[in-house]
Amino acid sequence: MSRGTGGISEAVRNIPYGIQQPAVSGQIAQLEEFLGATLFQRRPFSLTAAGEKLYRFIEPFFSGIDAVAFELQGGAARQIRIGASDIVLRDHLPELLQTVRKKFPQLNLTLRDDYEPELERLLEKQEIDVAVTLIEGKPPAGIQSLVLLELPLALLAPRESKLASAEELWSQDKIREPLICLPVREPICRNFQQGLNRRGVDWFPAIEVSSVDLIETYVARGFGIGLTVSIPKAEVSRMFGFCRCRTLCR
C-alpha cells in the first residue's frame, strides 16, 4: 500500500492477488503490534512518521517487482487492461486484438467500458493500462497520448427532414429541432457548444443518451437532430444504424 492509495479499501482494490480487506487489516494490525508503533492514521488516511520511515525502506523493493516479473516471464507481457467506449470495444478493437493475440497467445485481456473523464481517472489510478478515447488539450502529467485519428463532428437528420445543410440551422432565429447528443461532459458536446458560442448560436440538448448508437436510433425514429462523429470508411447502414437518417452538409 502506497501513500497515494487513499487507505486500505482502495489499496485492496489494486492488489491483483484476490486478498480481502479483513486479511490486510489484520496483517497491518499485527505489524503495528510487533513494531510497537502506529504506521498511519485511518481517517483521513495519512502515514505517521514511523509509517513514512518504513515506506521509504520498502518502496524500492516493491517498485521493482513488476520489472523483475516481466524479465522472468521472458519479456512478454501477460496482461493488458484496456478502457474505451462501448462502440470502440465492440466495433474497432476485436480485429486489432485478434492480431495481437496471434503474436502473444498467452496475453490476458481486461476490457472496461466507460467515458472519457472516468477513463482518464482510471489511468491516473493505474487501474487500466491503455485508454482508447476522445481527448482534448494536453493529458495530465504522467499520461502519454498518441493521436490515432481525428474524427470531425457531424449532424444526423432524419431522412424525411427538409434540412439540406447545417448552415440552415445556424441561420434560424431560434433552432426548434431537438438536439440529441451524449452527456454534456463528453468532449464531443463540449467542443460542439464551443463552436456554437463562436457563431453566437444557442442550441442545447433536448435528449441525452449514453451511446452513439442511441443517437442514431433516435434520429432515425424522428426525435430530432443528432450530434455524432463522422467515422471514416463506415457504411451508411452500419454507421447510422437505420437507413432512415443522413448527415447534414457543412
Q: How would you characterize this protein structure?
A:
- The chain is 40% helix and 16% strand.
- Residues 235-245 have low confidence and may be disordered.
- The protein is α/β, with parallel strands linked by helices and 250 residues long.
- The termini are far apart.
- The chain contains eleven helices and ten strands.
- The protein has a five-stranded mixed sheet with strand order 8-7-9-6-10. Strands 4-3-5 form a three-stranded parallel sheet. A two-stranded antiparallel ribbon has the order 1-2.
- The protein has helices at 8-13, 21-35, 49-63, 65-72, 86-91, 93-103, 116-124, 166-170, 187-199, 212-220, 236-239; strands at 40-41, 46-47, 79-84, 108-113, 130-132, 153-158, 179-181, 205-208, 225-229, 245-247.
- The chain is elongated, with a radius of gyration of 25 Å.
Form type: elongated
H/E series, N to C?
Answer: HHEEHHEHHEHEEHEHEHEHE
Major sheet: 5 strands, mixed
Overall pLDDT level: 79
The end-to-end span amounts to 53 Å
Number of helices: 11
Structural class: alpha/beta
Fraction in helix: 40-55%
Query: Spans of 5+ residues with little confidence (pLDDT < 50)?
Result: 235-245
Percent in strands: 15-25%
The value of Rg in angstroms is 25 Å
Which sequence of strands runs across the widest sheet?
8-7-9-6-10
Total beta strands: 10
